[in-house]
Structures are given as structure tokens and as C-alpha cells.
Amino acid sequence: MNIITDFIDYGLRELYFEYANNTSEFRASLRSAVEKNSFCKLQDRGETMSDILLEMNDIQKSFPGVHALDNARLDVRYGEVHALVGENGAGKSTLMKVLNGIYKKDGGTIVYKGEQIDLSGPIDAQKRGIGMIHQELNLMPHLTVAENIYIGQEPMYGGVFLDQKKANQAAKDLLASMHLDIDPTTRIRKLTVAKQQMIEIAKALKNNSELFVMDEPTSPLTDTEIEELFRFIRQLRSAGRGIIYISHRLDELWRISDRITVMRDGQYVGTVNTADVNKQDIISMMVGRVIYEDPKQCSNVQEDAPVVLEARNICAPNVKNVSFCLRKGEILGFAGLVGAGRTETMRALFGADHRVTGEIFVNGKKVEIHSPSDAVRHGIGYLSEDRKAFGVATGLSVRDNSVMADLKNYRYGPLMNDRKIDKVAEEYVQRIAIKTPSLRQLVRNLSGGNQQKIVIAKWLIKRCEVLIFDEPTRGIDVGAKSEIYKLMNQLVESGKSIIMISSEMPELLRMSDRIIVMCEGAITGELDICEATQTKVMTFATMNM
Q1: Which long-range contacts (CB under 8 A, 24 or more apart) does 232-237 make?
Q2: Of 21, 280, 458, 473, which alpha carbon lies 20 to 30 A from 498's?
Q3: What are the DSSP E strand ranges found in 106-197?
């Protein structure tokens, strides 16, 4: 371990100089403290890891027909990264919206910095030092970094004119204090997602936030960007800030968190020290049952299964001469690193993006696919990795979303056949176990796993025989993942065929019958599942053609 790097990474620069000029005993004690993550004990702030920054007790919240929170609890210490986990629909977001003042609690108490508080709204929470960094970043891409940081609180001169120079300098000083080399005059749209996330954190720091809520902060990030974020979270922790860390990526909890609180069905399940438990312990607490994720040992596809889809020499932007076939009842996995061209290939095949050259065959017959409607007409459905943008209309009901791809079959003259729509929507809600209070429930109010099931229902109602799943479980908790996996297996058992793009190696090895690996827009390898390993997949994924 490089003690110098650790001290700088964790924001203990001043302690490093003291460390460098002291005795071996002092150096050893500091090294031990760094290794144990006991950073705030090193700083003479009068606070220790036992000091409670936030206590939420017996929190109650109900909506019409739904008891969203029942006896929910959470406490956060100064200088702690506290992970909050649970299945989609477990109540995590609702609890955080209560903490942020978006929802008014129906019962219970919130004690922040030793004072019982009742929040009137997000601005009140912000003024008290509670910063919320949402999964979907709340930045204005056409404005500069400084303008985003100080929006609504812009420095003025003469009482009426914006002092742009002062705003830029203030933003520059703030970013420098965070050890971020970002020009405050840069437009947000020109920054990476990781740096945009840092700007969200800067906005919270500007308000002197002592408690940060981070909702799925790593979901859109690359491995390098995740490391950058983790270094900064450690700096916040070393400065005594409290962090509530929400994530479905359970493996990363052991890299960043000190304690874990688990919720299920709107209720508190328990809080554990991260070092005292393993991944399976947390999964069992989350879902109330054991979920196994063993790799598939052999393909389930019959040797003589017919080819239902074939692509020959597909060329498109970022796609180079891609050819493959898909058999009836097969799950064909597509692996590769970010930018490998997997999504671009499928969008070109589906007609969503322009295909320069190449041929497509469905059930042995050449077909012309120039648009998504062409693909759907030939029985191909596409489940985008961004389901909220391309998969569902979140402002519409479960009922309306389920028949969206097949509306012409539910018309009765100039009107819609509501009785027929209700019948088929109810059938598929039951068939694939969509959890919703009613068919009229708005999709935006459902969990990510249930939104994904609605997208599947939409294509099943359209009677698609080939389904392209692009990152099918992104942003979905482990319990909902298991349900999606079960549903996918049921689909192929019934004769459907699936192409699955995934960035999660365990998912590829668990679900695929074959795995095709891409790198820089080209296919670099193909593996039957019986011979596939993480090492082999990664070797092909980093192989330049």
C-alpha cells in the first residue's frame, strides 16, 4: 500500500506532513488508521464514528392504496458511508424523498444533528445541509459549470446584474477545494457523466451540506470513472460528511461502505457492518430467500433447432462487417466493453439506425428492415437499455403501455376497444407477474423491474418471436433480476428467441447459450456456454481486429 497516495486520496494532506516528520510509532498508528478507514478519528473535530448525524425512526408514508413506508428506520454517523439497499419497490426512494422534503411523512421522527426536524420541502432540506444527488442528473446541459452550480443563487452586482466573473471565480475556488481540474466556463454537455456527477456534488458542497444522498451514482459510469468517484467519496468521508449510498451493484458495497441498511416492502429489515457480512447475506435480507447465480453449464438449445434470425455482413457507424445467427429457443449473449458496438449493431438490425450494408434473414427469408416498424412487422422486438426514454411512456398507465405497439388491433371504428384492451392488459399483468395496484397506475410510479416487465408484455402482445434485450437488468435490484431471468427462460422454453446485450459477466454466464464477443465494432470471438469463462470473454473483448 502506498501510504502517500492513500493520505492524498483521503484528503489528509495536512496529516501527511505531520506523518513524514514523526516517529515510527506515530507513522505505524496512522498507517493502521488508514487501513481501517478510521479517518475522522484522526482529525481532532470532537466527532467520532459513534456520533450520529441523522436518525429516522418509525417513518410512515401512505399513498392511495399503498402503504409505502411502515416503521422505516435509518441512522447515519459522521464520517460514514452508509449503504441503503433493497429490491425495487422496497421503499428506498420514498424514504429518501421524505428525508429531502419532497414527501411529507405521515408519522415518525427525523433527528438531524441532534435536532428533531420537520422538512417543508427540498429547499428547506438544502438549507439544513442535506444534499441529494439523484440517479438522473439534474443539470442544464446548455449552461456552464458555474451557471449550473449557482443557478438560483447567482452573484449579482447593482442588485440587478449577474456577476458572471464572480460566479466563475467562486466556482473555480469550489472545484479547486474538491481537487477537480474543471474549467467553470465549460458547458455541461461537454463533460463526461462522471464529471457531471462531481458538479452535482459541488452544488451540494456549495450549500455546506453535511449529509449526501447518492442514488445509484455508478450506474452510468465506466470502471475508471467509478474509481474517480470513490476517491472523492472517501475524501468526503474523511472530512466528516455522512453519505447515504444507494446501489443495486452489491459487489461495490464492500469497496466503499461502512454499514448497510436493508429494506423490504417498505419496512426496515436490519443494519449490519459491511465487514461482518457477505453478498449472499445481504441478498437473503433483501428478498427473504436465497438466490443463486450459478453459471449455466450447457446450452439448452436443440442441435437441430432452426435458425430464426440471421445477419450477414452488417455495416453501420461503429459496426464492422458483423455476421451471426440466432436459433429458435436460444439466448444469444453479446459481450464487450463500453464502445464495442453491441448496441449499435442491434439498432442497425432493428432499423433504428441507418445500416450501410448487410442482409437480414428471418426464418430463412431475406427481409428488408429500414425502420423499427419494419422489424416489428417481421416479429422482432427491441428492449432498449434506456427503457424510460425508448421502452415505456412513463406518463401513461400500465394498460396503455401494454398495447402501445399493437394499437391498430384494438380499434373499434374510430374508437378504441377499451374492453378488449383491459382484457389483454390484465392477462399479461397476471402472466408475467407485474406488480401494480391497478391497470390505471402510471408507469412512472412502478419499480424499474416492473417497468421492464411492461416492455416485455408490450412485445409479447405484439406477438414478436425474436426479442432483443439491451442491458435487461440495468438499474434493477437482485430480486427483480431473478424474476426477469425466470421470465426470459420461460420465453425461450415457449419457443421465443432472445439476443441479450449485457455488461455484467455473471449475467452473461448465467443466461446465455452462446456468447458472441465484440471489440471496436467487430466480432472477435464466439463461445458456447460450456466453454465460456470470464477470462476467455475478456480476452476476446480486448482483442483488436
Answers
A1: 232/178, 232/198, 232/201, 233/81, 234/9, 234/10, 234/11, 234/39, 235/9, 235/10, 235/11, 235/178, 235/179, 236/201, 236/212, 237/10, 237/37, 237/39, 237/40, 237/79, 237/80, 237/81
A2: 280
A3: 107-112, 115-117, 130-133, 156-157, 161-162
Integer-rounded Cα Rg, in Å, for the chain is: 26
* Digit-coded pLDDT (tens) for 270-323: 999 999 999 888 878 887 755 556 678 899 898 889 999 999 999 999 899 999
Half-sphere exposure of 220 (CA within 13 A, CB side): 13
Full-prediction pTM beyond 0.70? no
Identify the pLDDT of residue 211.
94
pLDDT tens for residues 337-374?
777 899 999 999 999 999 999 999 999 999 999 999 99
Q: Tens of pLDDT along 264-275?
A: 888 999 999 999
Cell numbers linked to 247:
446501489
What phi and psi values does residue 504 have, to the nearest 5 degrees? -100, 115
Query: Taking a C-beta distance cutoff of 8 angstroms, is the pair 221, 194 a contact?
Result: yes
* C-beta separation of 42 from 12 below 8 A: yes
β-bridge mates for residue 448, sequence order: none
68/437 Cα distance (integer angstroms): 12
- Strand pairing class (115-117; 259-264): unpaired
To which residue does cell 434493477 refer?
A: 476
